[in-house]
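[job 4417] fold queue: 2 targets
>>> target A
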Amino acid sequence: MKSFLFLFAFLAVISCKNSDKKSNTDISKPSSENIEVDSSDISAIATKDFREFKVLDSKYIDNSELWDVFNKDLENFTEATYNSLKPLILEKDIPSLQKAINERKLSYENLTKFYLYRIRKFDRENDLSLNSVIALNPNVIAEAKQKDIELKNRKLKHAIFGMPILLKDNIDASGMPTTAGAIALKNNTTEDAFIVSQLKDKGALILGKANLSEWAYFFCGDCPSGYSAIGGQTLNPYGRKVIDTGGSSSGSGVAVAANFCVAAIGSETAGSILSPASQNSVVGLKPTVGLLSRSGIVPISSTLDTPGPITKNVMDTAILMDALFGEDKSDSKSIWALWEDGFYTEQLKNNDLNGKRFGAFKRLMEDSLYVAAIQVLKQQGATIVEVEEEKVDLPDFIRLLNLDMKKDLPAYFSAFGNQSMSYASIDDIIAFNKEDSLEVMPYGQKLFEGISADSATDEELMAIKSTLKKNGQQFFDVPMKQHNLDGFLSINNYHAAFAAVAEYPALTVPMGYAENGAPKGLTFIGPRLQEKFLLQWAYVYEKASKMRVSPKNYN
């Protein structure tokens, strides 16, 4: 079959062939060389040595300007105040935060100021900088004060009420531009995306925007994950400049890990939530495609894209899912869900794994953390069945992304983008970038050029989609039926592409740390619309294993 290069980490999925090769047992390990694979051998790789950064700090974010709007409000929020609030906030889940607020030990205003203080203290222009936040909501302190007033009047609508949330900067939100990390979109001010309206309707606070791999990591091809021209290079708090952040929701994963927010919203096409969540020792859920609206999100693929929560714990993930889901008639794949608000949180009360059967991929059994996680699940009553991976490939996967983005990005510009922008095609963005290539695209724009060069009839595109979905479902469904399985156990985003094309949900939860300190995640994968079970399973594992440890330099 025709060979091609996978040059971006979000397409991480374990190879179906050469299972005896040692190099495939630690796929999150970066390589300084490009690895050539064919369409039947999709490997999970970050192909550049991510320590060789061409650009580190943003050339487009003025730190003093960023904080001018907050300086007066933060004048009386001292280091002593900050330290006194740490025990109430750091690493706490949403119910614990709400309890502290109800007991008048904390307020939404001080919770918001605490996160702003930490972002200013750690995120940019210092020896511990992470470059995870790309923009801040200038009105967030005033909005937090209003939440305190509403709480006094008993207007609490939802557990997410008053919680400061960061959004990946490909998600539209009023009051801040939505850039996808690209200079071409630096003036893309918009209305709220559907999911942002969902959050606000339930009382959440939008704290700001998180950095990302530019254009959701489908742009340059040869750049490190976590880099964008607007936001600079996001770094991993477990090993700055040493451990990969994962992509493309890099800033979302890093900001949650470093306690810069209660939670963040990322987006995934094939691994872009699972990768940064696992790389930063947090929880990431990639839902069934269509369960959460994609309207008002800068797209790659209307076939595969989905937003999803990134949090420090499974409880918060369930709360975010309750806040986010809802039918969006403007999204062609939107799913009408009958369940009521609080559905996902309620599922966590069922925390018994007795009788549950999980497929564990034999080739992953060389990973000691994976084996240890399996033992924890067995101790909780689960049955583990070792399975071989189905020998199916994902032909024309890149072409699907090319062909979808070629039509989906102009559709976004037309329906949701700022109308002052004149872009009507990928070619328009390519031309803009060439005007100042050194500043705008230091790593080039290889993947965009691939999009421009690709074409297909509607019939060809439908055939590609049909084959990929069928193969992805076969990868899971055959062993599931053969062994009567409830779900599968993977690592990080190793099987993300198969879950993506099958349109199946996946949830990763901290599993421990490799010898070099790099976090790893245990990833649960299940059939369509089975998020409630993924949450149950992950909640049991999380409570039994307690594997997340916050990054030591950010406490």
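>>> target B
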Amino acid sequence: MLKTLLIRNYALIEEVEVEFESGLNIITGETGAGKSILIDALGLVLGERANSDIIRKGADKAVVESVFGISGNKKVKAILRGQDLEVDSDLILRREISAKGHNRCFINDTPVSLSVLQAVGDFLVDLHGQHDHQSLLRTETHIDLLDDFGGLAGLREEHEAAHHRMTQLFSELEELRAKELSLRERRDLYEFQIQEIDALGPQAGEEESLETELRILENSEKLFESTSSLHQLLYEGEQAVYDQMVLARNQLEDLARIDGSFDEVKNECSSAVAIISECAKFIQAYNSKIEFNPERLEQIRDRLGKLALLKKKYGGSIGAVIAHRDKIGQEFALAENFEAEIAKLHGRIDAERKACSGAAQRLSSKRREHVSKINTSVVAELAKLGISSARFDVIIENRMFGKSNGSSQPSRAYVKLGRDFYEATPKGIDFVEFHISTNLGEEAKPLAKVASGGEISRVMLALKTILAKSERLPLLIFDEIDVGVSGRIAAAVGKSIKSLSQFHQVIAITHLPQIAGLADTHFVVEKLERDKRTRTRLRKLELEERVKEVAKLMSGTQVTDSGLKSARELMGLAKR
């Protein structure tokens, strides 16, 4: 529901901030006071077109900001999440129009495009007047309204899921066919690359191992000389470190027997003797294994050179070479087996198409069961609203693609019923449009093409009344629905609007006391002159003010006691 609306520097409005309530909100006021300006301003924040002409004279920009409660509005929340916008129980929409022509849109203080603002607005408000947000005038919404009326959400979701799976499989098929064509062109290249890589057979970690072995072989002479020299120094030489340390240890043992304070250093010296012995053994063993192998050295250099060439061609590392081999190996195998893969995918598509077709047929049958009930209900409601000779038709069309010939398959957007293919969308095989005639003897025409003004508003009201419990746009706005309506019909219009307000928040601009008297909340628009400037303001009325305003609508500006009495009776108030 719409909680607050702030309008600043828009047309005659310098600044207006109003808090709306749930139920029926009525706006009245003198002709020319600016009632419709409020609705136009709200349309601006819902994404309707605007230009700098609407900016109040002397101001730099016009600003319209609205706060909507969206706790139960799943569609709006889905749009917000899809745009990575903050989702909360309240939604703040703001539109700024600059005198320089700049147009800025915000959702929860985050800049967004006008199209995103429009998308959100489509699921928040239905404006009935000369506005773009009239959902019933958009043919694409008719199928949704029919499904809501019939309670067909479960069948609709079943078909939508099957249709999504089917189109996903078609995407896979298209990708496979595109890959087939591409692989056929690259098959010889892949075969050559596979043979080239397999001929060398690179292994993960091989390069590092070879480089280590190469380094050792290239330095074998130095290693032999150095280890021989070290072994002499540590163990075999005349003044070998090992021998000297043994002498030192023996002397320390003698000293320790005399003075126990030498025990610790004696033990450390003994450890040093053991360590030198181990070092000498390792060096001797290493020295004995040193190879002088020029042939192996050349083999390693040759293989490293070949690995370097592969790395340069296929990714810069042995890991990249192996990954490339795995990838082209899989694609080459696929190229060798395309017919089997495509046949397998066709089998999956046929099975999913069968499921999708069955769901589409069940959904279509259920929709047709509800058509006559909707037609009858709308005609009956229109009669209550003063359109006694109306005709209403829900037209359901199925668009056949052609007949199967056992070879080529039609586009992914089709399902099969019997031998025929039908165009399908995620909503099914049905294309729904509401047709209406409001005059006896005239052929019913598409709802979007019927007359505008009070008559079309009553048509909308009739449809909204029978769809009220199922169609869940949170806010309905009726801008002067009472054009050309009076007397008994006005009472019927008021009753229908009041009934709608049990399921939706309703804002209605009216001149009729029969409608205004039913308000849950009543606002009056007033035009004021101050400092040689005209300003429009919106004021919420208390009960006695409401009675007086309804009396003015009944009898004019001169309100009498009898007029007040009549107003109270119309409003269902006890005599005061």
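[job 4417] complete. Note on B: Confidence is low (pLDDT under 50) at residues 403-408.
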